[in-house]
Write a structure and sequence with these properties.
35% of the residues are buried. By secondary structure, the protein is α+β, with helices and mostly antiparallel strands. The strands form two sheets. It has a ten-stranded mixed beta sheet with strand order 1-15-14-5-6-4-9-8-2-7. A five-stranded mixed beta sheet has the order 3-13-12-11-10. Helix 13 packs antiparallel against helix 14.
């Protein structure tokens, strides 16, 4: 229609000019209003979806299809700028979720059995993990507390005590050496534990008694019937215990001067020899003084040496406190274990501490007559003979001085490498066997500190039903201590070992203890049970002795590194420990004898337990002038003697 006939309110409609393209389709030229805009070519392979996808499945499909092309590709900078400028305004949550695992692990828990089915063939595709808004919704839903099944007492106990995984490790504690190495000392050699484990001897030597002294009291068999339901209080003993070194023993000095034993090259005690034999199992530091005089070796220990004390949890988990005032400090635990062994060894005797007369009367009523003590050729030991009338009586022990010959006879033309050694061994009690013969015993006590800190096995609950598990845990925590006890019993040719299980009355009370039970075992069988190789133990001793016999005359120190599995041999001057020996002699002569009842004021300095009585003032003859009982005042803040 002509424009003149249109009403004023009508909108004009003009037909645009159409261009005919005879050679193809589309316009021949771009419109003028679009001439300055950039042009992005359209690719047919590009995925064209819906304008608003609320399920996030399309995005997940694109992630799987273009896994290696995380960033969108554009043609020019104008489109890139346009995309970045619109990040603040989105109708749909387009933020990418966490980076998906590539390959088979993406969105799947494992491998399926078919495509879209459970029992089909080939590799199946499980439902993909949700992303975007759906993943956020699921995350909020999963935060709801779901009631779980009740936990067992064991799991609750482990969780309360900071249960850790198998690969969790505490920082290693740096321990101090038992002796401060001085600059003027020179290293003569060292022995690695890996090398000691390979040493062996073809035949274990048999000992021959050259002297025996002392009197053994009979063992009270009523203690074999004790169990956790009928526990018995551990009674404190007021007897003196002497730990005399080799050079201070008058009997060893007499044997060394005897022409009949002029071919003996080594003199030692069972405590010192067992430390060397069980060296690969030790974790804490120790030291042995070696004196070579006239081609002979005298293996000695210092006054207050760690050899005099019983260790506690040496090879177990390090739970000990750093606080010197804590009852679980290393020094107090060592003193506690030593006192428990002393008290136990006297309480189980018929003439021991506590109600000895009542036990003797009960034994005589049941057996017809009271058990009799066993006296050796010399009924009194040289140490007990020097106890004064005002001093506490000496503990009834017996000593066997035994001769061992290490090595086998040489073949024709070979050098004789055999070495003879005299060892002072110890016996604790006597009992009657099945044929009414005398059976000699060694008495030792294992002590429980706190089940929650050590192994989680409560002796009061498991000792009757799972005694093997209790002993296996003790073997793990005290491997070195059990090995030394077994070797001492084998050196003394003891027939049986009596192990006592002693526990604290309360986990926070280290002064009161109860006896929960006893166990009897033969030394040879017990050695196999704890995987102790006697041939390897004697091989270690023989190898170290051979090295020391090649040294010059003088004094040497065999020192165990407290932080490394290495033993070092130092050469030291003759007056290296004179100050310690003189101070110990003055202390033994001046300090009054303390008993368990009147030494409460000394508990803090002595490691939280009553110290044992001191030695008499007089010291026996010998190269060094120290002879005293175990003194717990020697334990320093670091727990080392």
């Amino acid at each position: 229609l002509p424009s003149a006939t249109l009403s004023p309110r009508a909108m004009p409609f003009l037909l645009p000019e159409l261009e005919d393209n005879p050679d193809g389709w589309g316009p021949l030229s771009s419109p003028a209003q679009f001439s300055d805009l950039p042009f992005a070519p359209f690719e047919k392979k590009a995925f064209v979806g819906r304008m608003a996808d609320w399920s996030a499945r399309a995005e997940q499909y694109r992630e799987r299809r273009y896994r290696d092309q995380r960033q969108p590709q554009v043609t020019n900078e104008a489109f890139t700028f346009q995309e970045e400028s619109q990040d603040g305004f989105n109708l749909v949550d387009t933020q990418k979720g966490p980076l998906q695992q590539p390959g088979w692990d993406k969105g799947m828990r494992g491998r399926g059995r078919g495509r879209g089915g459970r029992f089909g063939r080939g590799r199946g595709f499980h439902q993909a993990a949700p992303m975007g808004a759906e993943a956020k919704f699921n995350a909020k839903f999963e935060k709801k507390v779901v009631k779980t099944a009740a936990q067992s007492k064991w799991k609750k106990s482990m969780a309360a005590n900071n249960y850790r995984r198998w690969n969790d490790r505490d920082p290693v504690r740096i321990r101090d050496a038992s002796v401060d190495v001085r600059p003027e000392w020179s290293v003569m050699g060292q022995f690695a534990f890996s090398e000691l484990g390979k040493m062996t001897i073809s035949e274990v030597p048999d000992g021959v008694d050259v002297h025996a002294c002392g009197t053994l009291q009979p063992y009270d068999k009523n203690y074999d019937r004790i169990n956790p339901k009928q526990e018995k209080k551990l009674v404190q003993s007021e007897r003196a215990f002497f730990k005399v070194t080799t050079s201070d023993d008058p009997e060893i000095a007499r044997l060394a001067d005897d022409p009949a034993h002029k071919d003996v090259k080594v003199f030692a005690t069972d405590a010192i020899v067992s430390v060397i034999m069980a060296a690969p199992r030790s974790a804490m530091g120790w030291d042995i003084v070696i004196n070579k005089v006239d081609g002979r070796l005298f293996l000695d220990k210092r006054h207050g040496s760690p050899i005099d004390f019983v260790s506690c949890n040496e090879t177990g988990n390090d739970f000990m406190s750093e606080d010197p005032e804590s009852i679980n400090h290393l020094g107090k635990l060592t003193a506690e274990a030593t006192l428990i062994n002393q008290h136990f060894s006297q309480q189980v005797l018929v003439d021991g501490a506590g109600s000895g007369s009542e036990r003797a009367s009960s034994a005589s009523a049941s057996a017809g007559e009271a058990p009799k003590p066993h006296a050796f050729a010399e009924p009194v030991t040289p140490f007990a003979a020097e106890v004064g009338p005002d001093d506490p009586p000496a503990a009834p022990v017996a000593y066997r001085y035994r001769l061992f010959e290490m090595g086998k006879p040489p073949k024709e033309g070979d050098d004789d490498t055999r070495v003879k050694m005299v060892v002072r061994t110890e016996l604790d009690a006597v009992a009657k066997g099945k044929q009414e013969e005398d059976v000699f015993l060694r008495l030792f006590a294992l002590n429980e500190v706190d089940a929650r800190l050590t192994s989680g096995i409560d002796w009061r609950q498991k000792l009757d039903s799972q005694r093997g598990a209790v002993l296996a845990t003790e073997l793990k925590n005290n491997s070195c201590k059990l090995a030394k006890w077994t070797l001492q019993a084998m050196l003394a040719s003891a027939d049986l070992i009596k192990l006592g299980y002693v526990s604290r009355n309360h986990a926070r009370d280290n002064n009161n203890h109860v006896l929960l039970g006893t166990q009897t075992c033969k030394p040879a069988e017990f050695a196999r049970q704890i995987n102790l190789n006697a041939n390897n133990a004697w091989g270690i001793l023989k190898s170290i002795v051979d090295v020391c016999l090649k040294l010059d005359e003088g004094r040497y120190l065999l020192l165990k590194d407290p932080n490394k599995p290495i033993i070092r041999l130092y050469t030291i001057p003759l007056d290296a420990f004179e100050e310690e020996e003189e101070a110990a002699a003055e202390e033994a002569a001046v300090k009054p004898v303390l008993s368990d009842s009147d030494s409460d004021s000394e508990d803090a300095a002595a490691g939280g337990a009553a110290p044992a009585p001191a030695a008499p003032a007089a010291a026996p003859a010998g190269p060094s002038a120290v002879n005293s009982a175990v003194n717990f005042d020697e334990l320093d803040d670091g727990g080392e003697a």
